[in-house]
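subagent[fold] <- orchestrator: predict structure for attached chain, return tokens only, no commentary.
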Amino acid sequence: MQVCHLSDQALIDQYLQGNEKAFAELLQRHQQKIYTSIYLFVKDRDQAEDLFQDVFIKIIDTLKRGGYNHEGKFSQWAIRIAYNMCVDQFRRNKRRTKVGGSDDFDIFDVLELPDENREDQMIRSETHLRIRQLIDLLPEEQREVVILRHYADLSFKEIAQLTRVSINTALGRMRYALINIRKLMEERSIVLQ
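subagent[fold] -> orchestrator:
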């Protein structure tokens, strides 16, 4: 049976019946999004890799215990686990996260934009750097919502559940984040291309 054509739920069912290839396919489908989400929170490649492995160990344990329900999408469930583990790590380290890129990894490297010439690539890279720098200046709650919404691709309902606030609070934090980013752009005379 070709596992690459199965839904996430079918892959989970196959894995629970002993098909290791099904879990490998599930991992392959979602690893980039989950790793990226972790990395954006912890801003350390080694720590992100460790947390990524811990997340998938927890996913495997939860699946084998029957603790996964079919209500939501697998990727959102996995990102929620990753987020909770990042928050736990953050609380242990009491270290402020940033969204900036590093020499080893840049979130925007995984985004593919077709037919881009070198000048467009440089402009895009500079624009992304400026945006990341502005996001780093936001208060923690606002930065968190921006990361979860735009980098982890979660809905506001999912963000509200994950951060244990109301949807209106999550929406408000995003609104204030955008207002603050605009103010910072004006203060610094930044014009995005």
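orchestrator: received. Logging for downstream: DSSP finds eight helices and no strands in the chain. Confidence is low (pLDDT under 50) at residues 107-114.
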